[in-house]
Amino acid sequence: MARSVWKGPFVDGYMMKKAEKARASGRNDIIKTWSRRSTVLPQFVGLTFGVYNGNKFLPVSVTENMIGHKFGEFAPTRTFKGHTAADKKADKAGGKG
Amino acid sequence: MSTERRICIGVIMGAHGVRGQIRLRSFTADPESLFAYKPLTSEDGQRVFAVTRKDVMKNYFVAALPGVADREAAEALRGTKLYIERSVLPPAQAGEYYEADLIGLAARTAENEAFGAVEAVHDYGAGTFLEIKPKGGKSFMLPFNDDLVPVVDVAAGYVLIVVPEGWLDEEKPQKAPKKGPKA
After folding, report:
1. Residue B182 lies in a domain
2. Is the ipTM of this complex over 0.90?
3. Which range, of B1-5, B15-19, B67-71, averages the lowest pLDDT?
4. Do B157 and B102 contact (CB within 8 A), yes or no?
5. Quick one: which of A68, A32, A67 has its CA closest to A52?
6. Residue among A27, A58, A93 whose CB faces B145 most closely
């Protein structure tokens, strides 16, 4: 059952404080969080979060098309042990997330 | 025999039918491109496999090999991995790197001191990141961007990394405030 619209998206309170602090610092810090249940808000775009998957913090660089999803969706908790694509390329992002 | 680095791009899973056809699994980003790369060789490069695509199934291709005419001969190839030379891959564009090239590179700090090695490259939909294995420590993830990985020199075999402040610190999660009983 979907969450009622009048409640707004759920975000753990301290996430907002951490995000504001990181944005104010202007550095390329990664914000560590255990809050996989928090929704990605428009205020988080451009920041990089380290989302805990039960073992490690996985970097999640927030972009516009991630708004509305939960942080946990981008940090899988199970390891894929298959064969990676041999000719797969990795794009290097510009920076600042 | 060439001494160039080889990359595994497929594996023979076993026989298909009784006429010597094989089941072939592709490890390329686009599975069909397995047949575009030539020559396909064994790991030591001594045996060349001229595979011909016959059919496609849910998880594998059906292919034929010259000189393999019956099921026993095809079954004998089960588990054989198919390799290409690294130079066969088309050159990557600026800012792009083959994951196979990045894995195994030495990781150095901005002061050019040895730190560890690149263990894996991941992308779960929120940006590419490198898994760095420090010397004698637990591996950690680092976003693959210009700020934190300013230099990638595949030819020289290293990447320069900048570990953000506090990223490797052990921390415990903040506990949510306990709610009292409802009145």
Report:
1. no
2. no
3. B1-5
4. no
5. A32
6. A93
Q: For residue B176, what pLDDT is reported?
A: 64
Nearest to A96 among B33, B89, B147 (CB): B147
pLDDT for the residue A93 = 73
- Work out the minimum CA distance from A43 to partner chain B, whole angstroms: 16
Nearest to A89 among B96, B124, B142 (CB): B96
Q: Is residue A40 part of a domain?
A: yes
Collapse the DSSP code of B107 into the 3-class scheme (helix H, G, I; strand E, B; otherwise coil) and give the result: strand
Count: domains in chain A: 1
Convert the pLDDT of each residue in A6-55 to its tens digit: 999 999 988 889 899 888 887 778 899 999 999 999 999 999 999 999 99
Please check whether residue A20 lies inside any domain of the structure: no
Pick the residue of B38, B84, B128 with the most A CBs within 10 A to test the interface with A by mutation: B128
Range of the domain at B145: 99-160
Scan residues 68-97 of A and list those with Cβ closer than 8 Å to B.
73-76, 83-97
Q: Of B177 and B21, which is predicted with more confidence?
A: B21
Largest Cα–Cα distance in chain B? Answer: 83
- From CA B4, how far away is CA A72, in angstroms rounded? 41
Q: What is the CATH number of the domain that holds A57?
A: 3.30.860.10
**Rounded Cα–Cα distance for residues B75 and B67 (Å):** 13
**In a shared domain, residues B79 and B105:** no
Q: Are residues B83 and B104 in the same domain?
A: no
